[in-house]
Amino acid sequence: MEIRKQEPPEYGERVLYKELESNLALKNPLINDIISVLDDQGFLDEDDKIWARLCLDEVIVNAIKHGNKECKDKQFRTGLYVTEKQWAVRVEDEGEGFSPDDVPDVEDEETLGYDHGRGILLMKNYMDEIWYFNNGASVQLMRYKRSKFRKLLEKILVFLKIK
Predict the structure, then answer these.
(1) Is 95 helix (H, G, I), strand (E, B) or coil?
(2) I need a labelling partner for 109 at 20 to 30 A (CA). Which of 18, 76, 82, 131 fits?
């Protein structure tokens, strides 16, 4: 999966939008709202809920802590977009941004013990597309709806990769 560095297209109808102060206490209620909408629309099974929650936690914490430096005067915006076949979440902060190229590759033996970069690896393994834009101050994650067969196939492939 490739990380793209330009502004992505908008995917579908915006079904949720929130603009919030940079307060970590607001993270879990926001994630719960997003998961609830995706679940209601049939995008998530129990495994997907865990993975989606991890990815959402990663981008929201990054916006609050790294982008806005936990400054409560700064806002971050989150939008959820859906079509029949896919969902996307966009998170934008008021920070200076970053380059994903500067994040160490946690799969590389030299940087295996680094604290940074694991979130991008996690997102690359679950999401179908990741877009960083506005100099890295904005991110959009996109995932296609999976058929039951595809979900089973992906679980088998993960199992085989582990062995």
Answers:
(1) coil
(2) 131
Considering all CA atoms of the chain, what is the largest pairwise distance in Å, rounded to the nearest integer? 48
The number of distinct structural domains making up the chain is 1
Sequential pLDDT tens for the chain (163 residues):
567 788 898 789 999 999 999 999 999 999 999 999 999 999 999 999 999 999 999 999 999 999 999 999 999 999 999 999 999 999 999 999 987 777 766 566 665 555 556 788 889 889 999 999 999 999 999 999 988 777 788 778 877 776 5
Owning domain of residue 37: 3-162
**How far apart are the C-alpha atoms of 1 and 6, rounded to whole Å?**
15
CATH number for the domain harbouring residue 41: 3.30.565.10
Q: Could you give the CA distance from residue 117 to residue 152 in angstroms, rounded to a whole number?
A: 28
Residues in the chain: 163
Environment class of residue 66 by beta-carbon count within 10 Å: exposed (0-12), middle (13-18) or buried (19+)? middle
* Residue 151 token pair: 């979900």
